[in-house]
Write a structure and sequence with these properties.
alpha+beta; Enolase-like, domain 1; 4-stranded antiparallel sheet; 12 helices; 12 strands; oxidoreductase activity; Xanthine dehydrogenase YagS FAD-binding subunit
Length: 325
């Protein structure tokens, strides 16, 4: 780890004012500290934002607001989240070990960096870490890598379970920066790699995530989050599915579907949603709709199993909803 300056701003405005090139914000530190030890990230200044007023969970105006500094374990256990948006609690509880969830912040989870081994190994090229150096994962070890939204420059999978669930819920993030406060759809907040994989978010220099805003679910909606991984505890997704379905009897009136472990960002599936809407809630319907989940997939040598796994994960998640009614 390289030498750096450590500071504690006393307000959001002060944090934004002090930020700049070579500066990193510290919340739970469960990603930043690891990457600093590996020298993947080498900020010259670290701003500890844990004393800033960016906490709280409330449902004012029918919108669930979660402060960016709320810890993952606290949000997962909050009754307003557990009962009003159960897929968020489930996604959070499946995200990491209990110890990490006690430390990790909501904002930090949404901004965590990829777990691609090439990105984390400073002895190898990586376009995300060093633009223009290459992407060895395209021809190298790529079992855990993405099949959706990839480019010749980057095939790294987005790591956040929470982000997948929030994208399915049409959530937004509120950002504060030098130009003031703005709100961005989370689905648009994450950028595709294209030829610039080092640009991961619609986050302007010095901006800080302050809140996550989640619309209220219709009372008739049911939701779940399913995660498939190599081991049961503390592992990133090979495939995951966040599903929200509103039914009228046996007929699906509306569906929202997003998948993780598959894309370079949390991946919404509008074609699947359209195929489900207006259809009877049967396994045959789910199977036909899930077939559309693989549109545009580009499997690599070691992850050719992922499109089929994605379809099966989605079908299983939809079938799980039958047990919640």
């Amino acid at each position: 780890m390289r030498e750096y300056t450590f500071e504690r701003p006393r307000s959001v405005d002060e944090a934004v004012r002090r930020s700049g090139s070579g500066t990193a914000f510290l919340a739970g530190g469960t990603t930043l500290v690891d990457l600093m030890k590996l020298e993947v990230m080498t900020p010259g200044r670290v701003l500890d934002i844990n004393r800033l007023p960016l906490r709280g969970v409330d449902t004012t105006g029918g919108v669930l607001r979660i402060g960016a500094l709320e810890r993952m374990s606290d949000v997962a256990a909050d009754p307003r989240v557990r009962h009003g948006h159960p897929l968020l609690s489930r996604a959070l509880e499946l995200s990491a070990s209990g110890q990490l969830r006690n430390m990790a912040s909501i904002g930090g989870n949404l901004l965590q960096r990829t777990r691609c081994g090439y990105f984390r190994d400073v002895t190898t090229p990586c376009n995300k870490r060093q633009p223009g150096s290459g992407c060895p994962a395209v021809e190298g070890e790529n079992r855990m890598h993405a099949v959706l939204g990839t480019s010749d420059s980057c095939v790294a999978t987005h790591p956040s379970d929470l982000a997948v669930a929030l994208v399915a819920l049409d959530a937004k993030v509120r950002l504060t920066g030098a130009d003031g406060v703005r709100t961005v759809d989370l689905a648009d907040f994450y950028l595709l790699p294209g030829g610039t994989p080092h640009l991961e978010h619609d986050l302007r220099p010095g901006e800080l995530v302050t809140d996550v805003l989640v619309p209220r679910l219709d009372r008739a909606s049911r939701s779940t989050y399913l995660k498939v991984r190599d081991r049961q505890s503390f592992e990133f997704a090979l495939a995951s599915a966040a599903v929200v379905v509103r039914r009228d009897g046996d007929v699906i009136r509306e569906a929202r579907v997003a998948v993780g472990g598959m894309g370079t960002r949390p991946w919404r599936l509008p074609a699947v949603e359209k195929a489900l809407a207006g259809q009877r809630a049967t396994e045959a319907t789910y199977t036909a709709a899930a077939a559309k989940a693989v549109d545009g997939a580009r499997p690599l040598r070691h992850n050719a199993f992922k499109p089929e796994l994605m379809k099966r994960t989605l079908i299983r998640a939809l079938l799980e909803l039958e047990q919640t009614r």
